[in-house]
């Protein structure tokens, strides 16, 4: 199945280029997870705020969290653009901080928001009749989640090629991305299911740990998230390379 082949190829891209992946992302990834680590170190503050109390230092905590989240967003965009460029344009990293392409990162962010809106609207529209049917026949409500995942996968991956295109300086429209993946709905449904199952498997150990303050749990999540991040970017890279540039994924 092509969906499975895309997933395997994307994973292979990462493991065959671990050194480059590490150089491209490690420094930026540490920046991207700073907010998560800060929240862990200030778990009592976060818990108090969630309970509706605002102890001394709440303002400082809120500002610091906001700043770290903004830096994390920039770092994540930086990683995505750099990895796309490494795979598709042979833009090899020379050190542990890849070249910053600010304009492409901004374009990537804007296109990501656009795709997110399209996916959200599409899933909402599709879920409404299912919800009404479920009100009449409650057992059918179990269809809502799989249908939502399938539709979201199709929309995201069919339009998602505009993101790698932006990273390498190509002007790919939504219509062109959609046309290039014509008749591939089943491929992307399979890909979405595979990604969902794989993600659940790798995060399951952390879900089984009942101690939210566990340092082992935190380390495991951060390490796993690095692989999930790079492989996730590679999925879009593979989709673009195969359907837009005609690259082989054998």
TrEMBL record:
The keyword Metal-binding does not apply. Coiled coil: none annotated. It comes from the Bacteria. Keywords: Membrane, Transmembrane, Transmembrane helix. The chain crosses the membrane at residues 20-41, 61-87, 108-137, 143-167, 188-208, 214-240. This is Glycerophosphoryl diester phosphodiesterase membrane domain-containing protein. It comes from Primorskyibacter flagellatus.
